[in-house]
Sequence to fold (225 residues):
Amino acid sequence: MKILVIEDEVLLANSLKFLLESKGFQVDVVYDGENGMEYALLGVYDLLILDVMMPGMDGYQVTRQIRINRCSTPILMLTAKSDIEDRVAGLNAGVDYYLTKPFDSRELLACINALLRRQGAQVNELTFGNTALDLASGMLICEGKRVRLSAREFDVMRLLFLFKERNLAKETILARVWGYETNAVENHVEVYIGFLRKKLASIGSDIRIVSIRRMGYHLESGDSC
Fold:
C-alpha cells in the first residue's frame, strides 16, 4: 500500500514516514500543499495524510482540488485545530477522517487501517484484459500461467494497471518508480517496458503496452485492439 504524507513540519513528516514504513507501507512525503496536490492527482496512492496549515495552499484547498478532479483516494487530515467548525470545514471539503494533534500512533494506525478497509484497499490483485497482477507475490497471471516480476518491473506494471487506458508519461513513471531525485533517464523506462512486453507475451496475455509519441504509455487489451 502506498501512502502520501503532505505535511510542512519536516520533523513530523519524517517521523510519520518512519512509522508507516516500519508497518510495511510505501511512503512518499511532500512538504507543501501545491506539490502535495500534484502528487495526489497522480492517482497512485491508496491513502493521503494531510495537514491543514501549510504555506501556499492549505489542507482544505488541497482537498477541494483533489475532489474536484474526481480523485477518490481516502484522506486523513491531521491538524492542531480541534474546533467543531474546523472539523466541519474539513469534512465538507471532502476529508474522510479528522485526527487532531497531538495523537497517539496507535490511534493513527487504527484510523489508517479503517480507511483502507472501508475503501476496499485490501484487494490483493489488479486486473486488465485476461491478465492479473498479484500484489502480494509480484506475479503476472494469465489463464493459469505465471511469471514473476522484479521489484522495478512490478512498480512499473502496477502504475500501468492503475492508469489502464490513460496515458502515463515517461516523466511520471521515472518520478514514481525511480524517485524524484533520481539520476535515471527516460531510457530506463523504455528498457523496463521492453522487459514487461516480453513477460506479458510469455504467458499469453492479451495486454499490449502501447507507446504514444510525447504522451507516454497506456494499456490496451485484446478486446480494445
